[in-house]
Amino acid sequence: MLRFPSPGRLLGSGAVLLAATAAVLWLTPSDDYLLLPEKAAPVAPLVTVEGEKPPSDEGGIYYVAAVIRRAKLFEKIFPSIHDGATLVPEERIDGSRSEQERRRADLRAMARSQDIAAALALRELGHEVAITAVGALIADIAEGAPADGRLLPGEVIVAVDGERVVRLDDLGRLIRRHGPGEQVKLRVRGERGLRIETLRTIADPADADRTIIGVLAEQATTVRLPFPVEIDAGSIGGPSAGLAFALDVMEELGKDVDGGRKIAATGEIELDGTIVPVGGVKQKTIAVRRSGIGVFLVPAGDNAREARRHARGLRIIPVKNFQQALRSLATLSRA
Questions:
Q1: Are residues 267 and 298 in contact, defined by beta-carbon separation less than 8 angstroms?
Q2: What is the pLDDT of residue 209?
Q3: Model confidence over 56-95: pLDDT tens digits?
Q4: What does pTM read for this prediction?
Q5: Spelled out in words, what is the top-level CATH class assigned to the domain 130-221?
Q6: How many DSSP H helices and E strands does the chain contain?
Q7: Distance of CA 182 to CAs 54, 148, 200, Å?
């Protein structure tokens, strides 16, 4: 005689199996990442400036970060369980570097953005700031290029074939002395001190007449301020808070930048005042909106368009440079 399980037992077994499957999916990491909104936070508690003034109103400058972490398998299948989440494939994060390497690069970028923010703010207020070019800062490395695995973002190229690299143009000029396939000797300054790396050049895939090693570089500088400006960002990484830092340093020194309003800002900032686009704008916009802040400064162009798609009443102000940001806020305070 055959005995069949009761419907209740079948349902119970199915529920247990479903729960076990969900638990496995929730605990097992995937290959992809999740980008999530983080709460907007005031910059003022992070900044210490000699001669700073106490706040005179209820306004303030706010920075906002997006959280990025590895997605669980369940989150990869159902990313919409988190409001405002974006699933990002691993190759878009930078598959050639470990999470620890990416973290160190982000912290170095944050430190550089702090120096630039302080320099711009003090210069805008009429102080003398000494800025010295000291080499070519590696911002990114093309996957599979000669530099991939040999150099790291955040390191500085200070010489090519024994000839000093001071300004950014020096790097390209010295590399182009070589034809594709020739060896080039680089002197590099990084966390491990100075070292020599010998790479073989290749032709630029977009221009066969141009020789490259596969790095995206920026001007490396040292900044000497007339008095100390300390920005303690803790474990926050990346350069996207540069604009917010610069605005707050001016506030700390008595310049009414915010006009009594709470102002959020994002954007990497360069020494000439240019505001560079950043990532995670969707998440940052949602975070600012949730924080009850009414105004959000973002880099002009694609960043501003993305922010407007998620603004829902939040006022988005696109800015191309630091001076335009100051003018926009001055106009806003008179409105």
A1: yes
A2: 85
A3: 778 899 999 888 888 888 778 877 777 888 888 877 765 5
A4: 0.80
A5: mainly beta
A6: 9, 20
A7: 59, 17, 5
